[in-house]
Q: What sequence folds into this?
């Protein structure tokens, strides 16, 4: 009757290189960060892949690599995609 499931989510900042997630929410009160995310096309439902964490945070959105700072990565919450 009922199929068990799990929901695993976290801040994008916590993902390791090669891991990916689907954006669930952007938690920030900073209007500059909010506008930056919108201009980069990062919104609810967007798939994001972490390419690199150090020395800069590099993500891939729609096959386009983008560099973001740690504060921005911390504001993006994702549902982790396993597989």
A:
């Amino acid at each position: 009757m009922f199929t068990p499931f799990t929901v695993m989510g976290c801040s994008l900042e916590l993902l390791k290189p090669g891991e990916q997630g689907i954006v669930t929410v952007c938690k920030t009160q900073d209007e500059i960060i909010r506008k930056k995310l919108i201009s980069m096309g990062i919104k609810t439902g967007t798939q994001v892949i972490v390419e690199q964490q150090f020395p800069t945070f590099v993500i891939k959105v729609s096959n386009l690599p983008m560099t973001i700072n740690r504060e921005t990565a911390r504001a993006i919450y994702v549902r982790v995609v396993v597989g």
